[in-house]
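batch job 7 of whatever, protein = GMP synthase [glutamine-hydrolyzing]
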Amino acid sequence: MTIKNIYEYRILVIDFGSQYTKLIARRIREIGVYCKILPWNINEKKIYQFSPNGIILSGGPQSSIEINSPRAPNCVFSIGVPVMGICYGMQTMVIQLGGQVISSEKREFGNTKIKITKVIPLIDNINYNIDSYGNMLLDVWMSHGDQVHSLPEHFRAVASTNNCPFALIVNEKKHFYGLQFHPEVTHTKQGVDILKNFITNICLCKTLWMPKQIIKHLIKKLRNKIGNYKVILGLSGGLDSSVTAMLLHLAIGSQLICIFIDNGLLRLQETEEIMNIVKTNYNLNIVYITAERKFLNALAGIKDPEEKRKVIGSTFIEIFNEEAKKLKNVKWLAQGTICSDVVESEISLTKGKFNFIKSHHNVGGLPKKMHLSLVEPIKNLFKDEVRQIGIELGLPNETLFRHPFPGPGLGIRILGEIKKEYCDLLRKTDAIFIEELQKHNLYNKLSQVFTVFLPIRSVSVMGDNRKYDWVISLRAVKTVDFMTADWAHLPHEVLACVSNRIINEVNGVSRVVYDISSKPPSTIEWE
Ligand code: XMP
């Protein structure tokens, strides 16, 4: 089978800040076509450089009729490719091409049905509901306050609701489409079919973005890039670094050296578990390094979360550098950076100033003292794509469905200064929480669970004795992409059982609390 260029066909998604922008991108990729998200205020040059086969304008939180509200780069409408505007994206397209948008009296939010007045290629060959009058209806999901009032030249409406005469509009000659509803959400039942029509029949993209093809493409690219040099990879045992390791292993075999560092900030039994998984399932060169003392010494007295991240990051780099020197002919450091790490930082740039939240240590380049060049094979992939690739590569379930664990480990779950005794205590509470969730069949239904050490003391009474000990918070969240997350509504009896076990079994804890904050505004980790 020949290796196809998986980037040959590509869709550009222009982001106006909708919570669903990433969902649009995921849907396109699930259909089998590569796509990229760029912010609305991106330089036009980047759009020409990307050279898309089609463009989708996302929804957005602002009102399109507000002064200075975001607009699509003008080249979007002159570059000569099909354009689909969704909700805000439709409205800005209408305004920019000479039509009018007004604030509607009735806000439409939720499920609704649109009546099709003419079948166009975008909505051809999909299942309609037919009502008793013979009308063709589609179940869609809408969320808008403003709506189109008059159309630009050469546009016409092909679907409407009682409140919204322009639910779907088209300029057939130019292949411009405006949807007041959201095809990317599952509530729009034929949404994927509509997107598929747009991408494959209108933009004429072939579906080359498939796990098998992606793997072949990445392996070839890695071989070309790396040459005869050696690569070192910090293997944590998580999904991203394991997929990165397997891809590199297939590409360059023994030129890859994986380094597993026990930094003293890992969970209970983590080292044994990971080494066991790696030894049983992978045939990798692996160097195991114990560096607890080095990390804890470097962190002594540091309370600030960002400072802690920096120190942990640079201690990792120091060890990688030392190992690289020992190994000779090492030129590359591989990292399992994925798309969301990058998208989050690119999108934050659209707000005008850099909206700094946290410095994820694998984004933003390496410190100057690093002597190695970076190789990041899965940088363009979303988490679920990485998992699909992992499945295709035959990774075990323990890796595929392992909850993510941050690079700085317990270092950002012990608030303030890090001490070994706090790490030991937190490891025990964390293990109890995870064990109980597994016992109650809940672990696999959650996205990330852990405990947090709060450096405050609280009073409790054990037997007849007064205790004045530490507070532990439980954190459990559900999320698809880790950019937003809901706190998990765990059953009270499970919470009671966890709290009871922690207080009874872990010396030094006097109180357990449950974190009921969602992201946004509260991030998943406490620091
Ligand atoms: P936040 O706390 O930003 O977390 O909502 C989102 C996801 O990222 C993980 N996380 C990190 N991972 N280095 C990492 O490798 C970091 O510094 C870091 N901070 C947060 C977090 O565990 C969650 O999965």
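notes: The radius of gyration is 26 Å.
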